[in-house]
Amino acid sequence: MLKELKNTSQHPGQAFRRWFADNMLDLIVWYNPDSSIKGFQFCYPQDVDRHAVTWLKDKSFSHDKIDEGESGLHPHKMSPILSLDPALRNDNALALFKEVSKGLDADIVTTVVEVFNEYGRRKKMDNKAIDRTS
After folding, report:
1. What is the pTM of this model?
2. Cα angle 66, 68, 71; round to 5
3. 19-71: pLDDT as tens digits
4. How far apart are CA 26 and CA 16, in angstroms?
5. How do the domains of the chain map onto residue ranges?
6. In degrees rounded to 5, what are phi and psi of residue 109?
7. How far apart are CA 37 and CA 40, in angstroms?
8. How far apart are alpha carbons 55 and 60 in whole angstroms?
9. Is the per-residue pLDDT at 133 higher than 70?
10. Nearest-CA neighbor of 97 among 24, 5, 4?
11. Which of 30, 36, 102, 106 is deepest in the core (most CB within 10 A)?
12. In this structure, how many other beta carbons lie within 10 angstroms of the beta carbon of residue 79?
């Protein structure tokens, strides 16, 4: 179950954010000044790596692999970075989110589910377009 982390740091000039986590997952939600959801980032395990789905309203949707900065090549941990990974298993990520989202605000759950569903619809349309050109 995702639980809200209290005292999440806020930065002047940036969107207000709320952070939810459990032992494997993170959900960060950014808000507009009118309290509507501006975007979110859902971090979850896929195969052996962690991945992040990031969505910003009216701007972007991305799926990335999280490089934790622990390559073993350096004696110290480096800063984690995101690298594009188009292989989102939408159904798995959505099922995982639904499993841990009980107790979250309804507007958060609705937004995340709608974004995943929209991504799934677009992916199916893209696959159909590819099939027709083959």
Report:
1. 0.81
2. 120
3. 999 998 999 999 999 999 999 999 998 767 788 899 999 878 887 777 666 66
4. 17
5. 3-133
6. -60, -45
7. 8
8. 6
9. no
10. 24
11. 30
12. 7
Residue showing tokens 């309290």: 35
User: 60: which 2 tokens?
Assistant: 């972007």
Angle, vertex CA 110, rays to CA 65 and CA 12, nearest 5: 65
Helix (H) or strand (E) holding 19: strand 16-21
Q: Which secondary structure element, helix H or strand E, spans residue 77, and what is its range?
A: none
Give the number of residues written for the chain. Answer: 134
Q: How far apart are CA 92 and CA 53, in angstroms?
A: 12
Tokens representing 2 are 């995702």
Nearest Cα to 40, choosing from 114, 103, 124, 96?
114
pLDDT value, residue 132? 43
Alpha-carbon distance 126 to 103, whole Å?
34
Dihedral pair phi/psi, residue 50, rounded to 5°? -90, 145
